[in-house]
HTH arsR-type domain-containing protein
Amino acid sequence: MNLRLETAQRTLLTINSMSTKPFPLEKIFGSRTRVKIITLFTTGVKRPYFVREITRTVNERLNAVRRELQILEKIGMLATYEEKRKKYYMIDEAFPLYDELASIMQKAGPGVEDALFKNLEQVGNVLYACVTGYFTANASAPTDLFIIGEVDDKKLEQFAKNIEHQISREISYTPMTMNEYRYRLNFSDLFLRQIFGGTYKEIINALPHDLKPSEAMNQKSKNIIREGVTKSL
């Protein structure tokens, strides 16, 4: 293994074993801006960001953000592409230290909020919301934004348009009432399995414990297995 990479890994593992109390990572990584950018890409929604969007999200100076992005691109942590004269940055999950960095950033303190979904609760009584599909590179997902609750259709449509304007592409979104969600859970609905069986990122989760996706889908799987065993006896 490359000596520099091995040394970096040992350092990260040492940090990772520290207390879960907020830790001033800028003292190790050398830059508050760099810490914020790494936090955004490792703990936030896994989607492409363009420079000015990153600048607004981390609330740092444009030149400082550009400098740190160049560094992170150079070491292979971030991949880039250009579309409509904008340069987009996204995390490269094949980066050797990705898992360690994500773990450290989650333990070190609060993440960087993705302003893209900041006012989602204003579209109605949102009990649950998650992003998948485009936002998490989950190609098999049937939607990009999934919402459970009672929402105002016009407000949700405008919310989605605002997102599309910021990321320069169309997204699909699916609202679902609580009654429909309960109904679909009862027969292990394909739509729900495609979302929660893949990669997704929760934005809001105010569901009762037994109806939270991780708990409900896990229990449903157990019931299906139990029914199959019973039938085979």
User: Anything to note?
Assistant: The radius of gyration is 20 Å. Residues 117-232 form a domain with the Beta Polymerase; domain 2 fold (CATH 3.30.460).
